[in-house]
Write a structure and sequence with these properties.
Length: 402
């Protein structure tokens, strides 16, 4: 189905919806302003300045410089009530934009290719709406503008600097514009939505020599190749088939010439899983395989394993509320899908470890307008109609949470 911005005579549109739809030109303007000025993680200086300028213009209290470039706006309703948080990420990617739109990136080699420009615009729209209507919600809303989601991660340092405390946040929600879903659909799911992200780097230390005299060498390429093949048995033969996991080796470098046996080989990879009970399981299995194969060949190894993000786990009650609000917004049950789990990762997970909440996907693809390229693609772009839908879900959540 397609979400239409034009008020339908058959639908009694609420005042909230009409007012938010009236914000659409500003949402587009802010998003395009940010799209033209993409910045990498922890370097979102222009983005942060833009957010601060808007908050000051609207008289909203804020704290800046949290985790370097993060900003937190605080808006209070006229009645006392809960403390809620909305989270938006602000960073872009090291990609050269190939779109020819007039609002294309002006920063060479950088691009908002994941839609975080849209997330920032939606959060600004929510802040603006709330500060204009303090009588429509109870309590306090913190709007968190987070740096560096694409890495190395801005959520954890923001939490360490106290964004969830003073006052203590009771529930948090966030969204990702999602080109895997068409405009007008929303992906909502209780429990695990996105995977834990862990990474490893390994160097195999063999003994180089002449390609024609292997008996004098320890072939690091051969050892590395056996390890990479054997690593796939972790998912195939160790992980419960009813659980989901991925082990990917994305990089393998070794050797200089066809007739030289390589002294060392290097590979790196990523591990993904949903179930937190697997935390700590993969480094042990990966090391056991590497150590065993190295021992068999008299090679040595150097392994570096580091977890990045935990899985994104949604709270059932808050997810149910987001689900019912999403249903009100898209007006058809077919527009809501729980089939949106992905092995992609997100550092929203750190917030959700501290506070119950819900992260959801806001459908943004529109193939008819050629807006359906995948995230992180040099031609990624999304249907901006989704911006007002995002604001409406956030605003309704804040008004309905109690
Ligand atoms: Ni993203």
């Amino acid at each position: 189905m397609v979400f239409s911005l034009a008020p339908s005579p058959s639908v009694d549109l609420s005042q909230i919806r009409l007012k938010i739809r009236n914000l659409q030109p500003q949402l587009v303007q802010w998003r395009r302003h940010l799209h033209q000025r993409p910045e990498l993680g922890f370097k979102e200086h222009l983005t942060s300045e833009f957010v601060i300028a808007k908050l000051e213009e609207w008289g909203i209290k804020y704290q800046s410089g949290i985790a370097k470039t993060g900003v937190v706006a605080t808006i209070t309703g006229t009645q006392p009530g809960p403390v809620l948080a909305i989270r938006a990420d602000m960073d872009a990617l090291p990609i050269q934009e190939q779109n020819q739109v007039e609002y294309r990136s002006q920063h060479d080699g950088l691009m908002h290719a994941c839609g975080h420009d849209g997330h920032t615009a939606i959060a600004l729209g929510t802040a603006y709406y709330l500060c204009q209507h303090p009588d429509q919600f109870r309590g306090t809303v913190k709007i968190i503008f987070q740096p560096a989601e694409e890495g190395p991660g801005g959520a954890k340092p923001m939490i360490e600097e106290g964004v969830l405390t003073n006052p203590q946040v009771e529930a948090i929600v966030g969204l990702h514009l999602w080109n895997r879903l068409p405009l007008g659909t929303i992906g909502v799911r209780s429990g695990a939505l996105m995977a834990a992200v862990e990474c490893f780097r390994c160097t195999i230390l063999g003994k180089g020599g002449h390609g024609a005299m292997p008996e004098q060498t320890i072939d690091s390429i051969l050892v590395g190749a056996q390890i990479i093949t054997a690593l796939q048995t972790i998912v195939a033969r160790n992980v419960n088939p009813l659980d989901s996991a991925v082990v990917t080796v994305g990089e393998f470098h070794a050797g200089k010439a066809h007739n030289i046996i390589a002294d060392s080989a290097h590979f790196s990879g990523t591990v993904r899983y949903f179930d937190s009970s697997y935390s700590g399981y993969f480094p042990a299995r990966i090391e056991a395989i590497i150590a065993g194969i190295c021992q068999a060949h008299n090679a040595r190894y150097d392994l570096d394993y580091y977890p990045l993000y935990p899985p994104v786990i949604n709270d059932p009650k808050i997810t149910e509320l987001i689900h019912s609000i999403a249903l009100e917004v898209v007006e058809t049950p077919a527009g809501i899908t729980p089939a949106c789990q992905t092995m992609g990762g997100e550092d929203m997970s750190f917030f959700l470890q501290q506070v119950p909440g819900c992260y959801f996907f806001l459908g943004s693809a529109n193939p008819a307008k050629d807006l359906a390229y995948p995230h992180h693609h040099p031609r990624f772009d999304f249907d901006e109609t989704a911006l007002a839908i995002g604001v409406e879900i956030f605003v309704r959540f804040i008004e309905q949470f109690s």
